[in-house]
Design brief:
Layout (H helix, E strand, L loop, with lengths): L1 H13 L5 E9 L5 E12 L5 E10 L1 H15 L9 H18 L2 E9 L2 H8 L1 H17 L6 E6 L2 E9 L2 H13 L5 E3 L2 E3 L3 E8 L5 H17 L5 E3 L6 H18 L3 E10 L5 E12 L3 E3 L1 H9 L3 H20 L10 E5 L2 H4 L4 H11 L7 E6 H6 L1 H14 L2 E7 L6 H7 L3 E4 L1 H6 L4 H16 L3 E4 L5 H9 L4 E2 L10 H9 L30 H6 L1
Helix pairs in contact: 2-17, 4-5, 9-10, 10-12
The structure holds ligand C2E and magnesium ion (2 copies).
Ligand C2E binds next to strand 12, helix 9, strand 16 and helix 20.
Amino acid sequence: MDRDIANNWTVRMLAGEQSEVFYTKRFLHKDGHVVWVEVSRSLARDEASKPQYFINSVRDITEERSLLAQLSHQALHDPLTGLANRIMFEDRLTQALARASRENKRLAVLLIDLDEFKDINDTFGHQVGDDLLAEVARRLKQATRAGDTLCRFGGDEFLYLSEGLTNHSEAETIAERLLSVFDEPFIIGEESLSQAASIGIATCQGGKGFVELLRDADTALSDAKRQGKNRYTVFRPEMHDQVSNRIGLVQELRRSFDSDKILMHYQPIVDLATSQTVGVEALMRWNHPEHGWVPPYVFIPLAEQSKLIFDLGSFALHQAVSEAASWRHLDQREEQPYVTVNLSPRQFHDPDLLSKIKEVLEANEFAPGRLVLEITEGVAFVDIDSATRVASRLRQLGVSLAIDDFGTGYSSLSYFTLLRPSILKIDQSFVNRAHDSANGERLLEAIITIGNSLDAIVVAEGIETTTQLEMLRGLGYNFGQGYLFSPAVPSADLVGMLESAPISCGVSPPPPPHVATIPIDYRLASSAARKAKRSL
Ligand code: C2E
Ligand code: MG
Ligand code: MG
């Protein structure tokens, strides 16, 4: 594949469409170990612009790759059970859905929930609870067919994906096999524990999204629980109430948007040495009439399933740039803080993105160098060629790119060399977990190394304590954001902070922003629901 890409680009370079390419290549060292290199190739031309020769520079990236692989493994697996985690499951399911549509095959998702697991935790303690979960995972894994995917969805929930089914009853056979692993008691230490489970099954032949399918499985699971547990239920469309609820929610979101209930808040990004605000991240807020502040991980994924995401995205860009332009006269420093705006994958691949950005910058006389667009690794994963083209046009415009939640995806290093982001924002889970394992700090160090090798600034997210701050400083981190400094605040409050810079970071962090309790119906609404637990 690398070779095809390289050939393709060579043609483009000769045609004058591209000035430089990067690609990675694998070699076998004479002592037997594998060496990965990154090749950067440019074309030298004579005065008449006639191609003369290629200039190749080769860099050994073996260690960076292995660090990245470690990061990916940690990001994609559940540490307790070793199973895939929900991020990996989401990816597998998304790909399986695309295949199912194309090949007209049926797939099934089984949501497995342990019955009364809480009682085990309460009676025997968390250690026994954890050991039981690990043993359940081991037995479920043994009952998993080759080619199927099993993941720990969180808590005492597991997800199972099976592709290429010819009829419904095959999914039921799988459910029976999975339930049979609970027939024998579990021996944990000195205890012999009986544990049962319930399963909700949703099947489809494509045409459904990840969120919808999980919601169907969840609805079926509730039915199995209602019917007395220790059984499975297959989703039927009559159980549709909750699904239609989602459509209602999108309509409600649209109405809120039209009546100005969606707004932007801003979280400072600070220089960790001086506590000066160097930038701000614009984060969207929904002021819901009944639920209060609804966090974006609930409604952004919903909006992404409709055209509404483009309206919300344009709003975020206009609002952030125009408000940031208005801070200009308040901040006397030469270096004005930059503003970062999150883009969802659909926005990033929107053919009108560039013209929209130009328009906003011009309308507000805003320097392109002060605008940063945040995208997640998933954006590159969708279509790397198109992402590279967009990234390069943004660069030409002077607008920078940041990779958000860095380390939670599993893009290869070559993706980043192609996108050439100016900023890597490392996911808050790395900061949270740094003290949990011996590996935690090493991973943070690895990320800095990768950032340096990509010539990118690394920003640590989710700094909540002074201990975390000190550790990050010690590891060479220069920039960060988090509740220790400030949560996201309305523009007016931010102006106050900019005037009284630097931001003070007391020993006790300011309280996290108030967010609405997520109503149960929204539970599976978000592909980013994993963030819910972390961010609340
Ligand atoms: P993100 O871009 O990774 O934003 C960081 C999230 O971490 C924000 O949550 C922020 O409030 C939260 N956070 C900041 N400091 C801390 C901390 O110290 N501890 C903890 N636990 N959390 C902290 P928020 O605002 O709920 O946003 C969640 C996600 O929603 C964002 O993640 C981003 O992916 C998405 N999002 C937000 N605004 C927009 C938008 O305008 N457009 C798009 N497409 N997505 C957006
Ligand atoms: Mg962000
Ligand atoms: Mg982030």
